User: Fold this.
Amino acid sequence: MDYEAVKTLVGKYEESFGGLEGLRCARAPGRVNLIGEHTDYNGGFVMPMAVDREVRVFFRATERGPVRLWSENYGEWDEFDLGSIERNGRQPWSSYPRGVALVLQEAGYKLQPIEGLVYGDVPIGAGLSSSAALEVALARAFCAAAGLELGSRELALLCQRAENWFVGVNCGIMDQFVSIHAQREHALLLDCRSLEHELLPLDTSAVRVVVCNTMVHHELGSSAYNERRARCEEAARTLNEQVGGICQLRDVTPEILAEHGRALDKVTLKRARHVVSENHRTIKAAEALKVRDYEAFGRLMDESHESLRRDYEVSCVELDLMVRLARQRSGVLGSRMVGAGFGGCTVHLVRRDRADRVAEGMHAAYLKATGTEPEVYQFVAVSGATVERC
Ligand code: GLA
Assistant:
């Protein structure tokens, strides 16, 4: 967020809360996942980077009274007591502060009320993790207000729990983890089982990350997500009966699947094939990035999209169109849908000297083909969540 935007928000805070005494700001970025889709909840590998779109919470601790928050995105207040947190179905965004405060308290942390202004410029519902950014920024704000210093891994897990148990989306750990642990100019290779991670430099003098927002969001999204997750668990159970030693699809090698896949029904086999191959691709992509072999990385992104489209079946007409339009352009090394699917964004690895032209061309081509104006972003990799004095 640039200086002018922050200045305006601080001004609004002053108007709403009558002063700037003790004001601090927690920020947490959204993310784009370069490769490793629908692998996190299977204990597998992902490779996201944090992007220069973020959520900011301007806040100060208060001695008593309720938590009072103003959402600048929704133009609404939310107020709740830390001692009795319930869902407020009329304001879905309020599930995030309430859920985060609740899980922190359930984990044994004593919180203090805050008053704050919340604003994010991560596109909402576009597969760029606006929810995780919101959770992480709020969690950081609550912890800072109460003088708590939680480990970053614990913080990520608690934010994920808020999303799973309070918001009701059965997501994996990728989004919250990268929003906290990301580093400038790096992608993050994360083992979602052990939570071991490695930062991989992104050479911005050679390549750029272009992201295209199809501007569609198909309702199927969250029910299909939970259904895919259940199928993967079923596949792991069945394969475990065959070979043993399998807790999650992460433990299944391509060889095991080739030999025992017939124990699965046709659809479950396709789902498992995506996850097993995507894990393999993500590890290969990390190797390619380390030696700056961007062509190889791009090919793996292309294969990832095909696997998500054919085997996992979470793409849609608009995402496929965006990917096809990109593949026709010179300088595009790889293209794939990003996030849960059924709409939202595609991500493209593009040669740096072609990035502006590709971005402009994609905008025009998608508009011409669909009549819908897409948003096209050239993201840089930023660092994870912070809390600062204002
Ligand atoms: C959503 C979830 C993540 C992950 C992706 C798919 O973004 O929040 O945990 O499962 O979908 O890779």
Residues 264 and 318 are 31 Å apart (CA to CA). The mean pLDDT is 96. Residues 37-38, 40-41, 171-172, 174-175, 339-340 surround alpha-D-galactopyranose (CB under 6 Å).
